[in-house]
Amino acid sequence: MTTRSKFDQELEQLHIQLMEMGALCEEAISDVSQALLKNDKELARQIMENGNEIDHIERDIERRCLNLLLRQQPVARDLRRISSALKMVTDMERIGDHAEDIAEIIIESKLDHTEIFNQIRLMSEDTRKMVKDSIDAYIKNDLALAQSVIQYDDKVDEEFARLKKDLILYISSFREGPVPEHNSECAVDLLMIGKYYERIGDHATNIAEWVEFSITGKHC
After folding, report:
1. Taking a C-beta distance cutoff of 8 angstroms, is the pair 28, 135 a contact?
2. Which of 50, 45, 41, 159 is nearest to 109 (CA)?
3. Which of 22, 90, 181, 198 gives 135 a disulfide partner, CB atoms 3.0 to 4.6 angstroms apart?
4. Which domains, and CATH codes, for the chain?
5. Gap between the Cα atoms of 105 and 47, Å rounded
């Protein structure tokens, strides 16, 4: 086997591992959204137990990338692919962490399915789409799809800003006295969940930007 053939084989294994990690992230986001909507505490516990799998594959990918950089000395596009992979796995790992953060809130809280909760549901759907599309953009080497993810982040940011305003109005509605403890805790939990979804959207955007870099050599 030639040096180039071996290098191409290693790149293909890197590609496969990234797809596997991406699939785990997609599954985590899908599961935590389902657990949130159904208040399924058992599913939330499973999400937290599965978090180590994402961490493990992240370390494997990092080792493979470093070996490729040190042993093969790639140039041009190959170098961009490997350096982008190193950056992408960090964002994927953070997506998994935020899914666990949301799962922990589901386990420990009593969330009311209020009108505000519907905004959380919308954020969960939109961020799940962003994660899926950013990973699909990598798999398909699709520049247009990566750029659409980057643009879509504005929508999630707007949804989070709206959520904050509505939660402020919700708390302000208790003007006759102190906010009941359960209501105040629920409001804080919903704000935290919204913030985690907003951060997931940011990490999906980062992945899309690294896909763009691997294709074009330009990074936002």
Report:
1. no
2. 41
3. 22
4. 3-216 (1.20.58.220)
5. 12
For residues 90 and 100, give the distance between their C-alpha atoms in angstroms, rounded to a whole number: 15
Cα diameter, the chain: 79
Task: Give pLDDT tens digits for 138-173.
Answer: 989 999 999 999 999 999 999 999 999 988 887 777
Say yes or no to pLDDT of 181 above 70. no
Question: Could you give the percent of the chain with pLDDT greater than 90?
Answer: 62
HEC string of the chain equals CCHHHHHHHHHHHHHHHHHHHHHHHHHHHHHHHHHHHHCCHHHHHHHHHCHHHHHHHHHHHHHHHHHHHHHHCCCHHHHHHHHHHHHHHHHHHHHHHHHHHHHHHHHHCCCCCCHHHHHHHHHHHHHHHHHHHHHHHHHHCCHHHHHHHHHHHHHHHHHHHHHHHHHHHHHHCCCCCCCCHHHHHHHHHHHHHHHHHHHHHHHHHHHHHHHHHHHHCCCC
Nearest Cα residue to 36 out of 132, 136, 115, 104:
104
**Start-to-end C-alpha separation, the chain:** 38
The residues, ordered by sequence, that sit 6+ positions from 199 with a Cβ below 8 Å of its Cβ are 94, 98
* The one-letter amino acid at 209: E
Spell out the residues 6+ positions from residue 178 whose beta carbon is closer than 8 angstroms to its own: none
Q: How far is 137 from 144, CA to CA, in rounded Å? A: 8
User: What average pLDDT does range 82-102 have in this prediction?
Assistant: 94
Whole-model pTM: value is 0.90
